[in-house]
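Readers of this paper often ask what the protein records in our data store actually look like. Such a record has a labelled line for the sequence and another for the backbone structure tokens. Nothing more is needed to write down the fold, since each code stands for a local backbone conformation. The remainder of this section carries one protein's record, kept here as part of the documentation.
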Amino acid sequence: METHDALQPRWVKQADLDVAEYDRCIESSGNSPVYATSWFLGIMAEEWDVLVYGDYRHVMPVPHRRKLGIAYVYQPVFAQQLGIFPPPLQAVRREFYRALAARFRYIQYQTGDPVEARVAKKTEGFLVRELHTRILPLENEYSAISRDYDDYITQNLKKAAQNQLSITTGIDPAVFFNLQKMSKEIPVPAESWKRFRKLMEFTLPRGTGKLYTAATRQREILTAAFFLVWQHHAYYMAVVSTPGGRTLRAGFALLDRFISDHAGGNLLFDFEGSSVEGVDRFFAAFGAEKKSYFVLTRNRLPRLLRLIKK
């Protein structure tokens, strides 16, 4: 039986991290999302270190930053969930959350592991809020997948086809950000958009990033969507559109084309979910099913400093 000391994860600063061993652990765990990779966190997180168990047997990436001189854990924008990888025994999960709670007085952390969420709540009193994303398996051929589309989707795809939009792929992030500056619909801080652009610049030439655009017959680009494809998952990261793009149903056409291009492969397509009811219904209409993830919050700040969470 392992001793209590043997169960203790250690705090490893990013500068001291064995990145090759960390990535091996993430890539081989079978349940890791792209958000936990060293390259994603290196771009999207202001600062991140890792709780490491044993010889990189289990790892827990921890993004953190400071406000009013106090370090706290936060969830980076565009990183839906993190967690402990691969999932350890319950006793080890407890030690991870004890170590995290001992180091930070304010924590907001998201995981897709329901057992992890229960352990955090029971062990350290984390508040747990359940959210959901939408997942669509793409292992079947496109004809089988599209048969499960809601009538709302098929009708709008017919309208998009009548508008004779051209759907193309490219590797120039400027196409996306030119539209983003015009639309300004996604409430994301400017610094996060800068990081997101770096993510696109890193992944598009490697083929991990996929940029789809919809344009009119006059070559006016109306809508652009960015996806990540990593291991056996695809992620709908962000979409930007002009009013004309919405009128001509360009968003429907883009998603349908991505699904068509990747159907018949061993992929799970994550629509990223939304707390906006209308957007969630839109994703569900493609046949995507709910999958829960959990927001874990622990606030042990002095009362006057609790505004740090805002």
User: Anything to note?
Assistant: The first helix runs from residue 19 to 28.
